[in-house]
Amino acid sequence: MADFKSLSVFCGSKSGNNPAYAAEARRLGELMAERGVRLVYGGGRIGLMGVVADAVHEAGGEVVGVIPDFLMHLEVGNEKVGELSVTDSMHSRKSRMFELSDAAVVLPGGIGTLDETIEIMTWKQLRQHDRPIVLIDVDGYWKPFLDLLDAVIEGDFAHLKIRELISVVDSAEAVFQALADAPEPDQEVLTSHL
């Protein structure tokens, strides 16, 4: 699949301690708007979520936020850019984001970002989708996660090809090529368990 009209972006509700995280989030948003690719994101106005949404919006792109109702009550929903879809739970938020997008891109983030990333990878491993997933490994942020995947493989809890469920790049500039080049998931990623 090379024609991406809509990307889910998973990222932190905080900006982190490295200015490069926000810089890559901003650049990703600019590139998405330039290419006419709609942003589907967690709907927050704070952290990297707010940075990427503002960047897409300011560059004239389309933004769809998906946020659970309880977070709206905490007043973190971004009602200033694009469309905001309110869901009844975190689970339905992830499902809705998946429904609205052609692929996923992951920026640095916390345990919520990890949850979203692992779930979308698991769905891919279980052959529920074949959409590309790209991690932007800003300044080595995702190295511990990638090391954990290697440990899972070395411990014989997953096939070596789980690493092909995701593509890893070091900048927003490399995202669209990685999306285009993403391999189809190998059947053996699933069947090696059975």
Overview of this protein structure:
- The protein has helices spanning 19-35, 47-58, 69-73, 90-99, 111-125, 143-154, 175-181, 188-191, and strands spanning 6-10, 38-41, 63-68, 83-87, 103-106, 133-136, 167-169.
- It has a single domain (6-191), classed as Rossmann fold, CATH 3.40.50.450.
- The two termini are 28 Å apart.
- It is α/β, with parallel strands linked by helices and 194 residues long.
- A seven-stranded parallel beta sheet has the order 4-3-2-1-5-6-7, sandwiched between helices.
Topology overview:
Blueprint: E1 6-10, H1 19-35, E2 38-41, H2 47-58, E3 63-68, H3 69-73, E4 83-87, H4 90-99, E5 103-106, H5 111-125, E6 133-136, H6 143-154, E7 167-169, H7 175-181, H8 188-191
Parallel strand pairs: 1-2, 1-5, 2-3, 3-4, 5-6, 6-7
Helix pairs in contact: 1-2
Task: Kindly name the structural category.
Answer: alpha/beta
How would you spell out the order of helices and strands?
EHEHEHEHEHEHEHH
- Number of folding domains? 1
- Strands, count: 7
Helix content: 40-55%
- From the spread of the alpha carbons, the general shape counts as globular
Taking the alpha carbons of the first and last residues, their distance comes to 28 Å
Cα gyration radius (Å) = 16 Å
Q: Unreliable stretches, pLDDT < 50, 5 or more residues?
A: none
Structure annotation, total helices = 8
What is the CATH third-level topology name?
A: Rossmann fold
By CATH, the architecture is named 3-Layer(aba) Sandwich
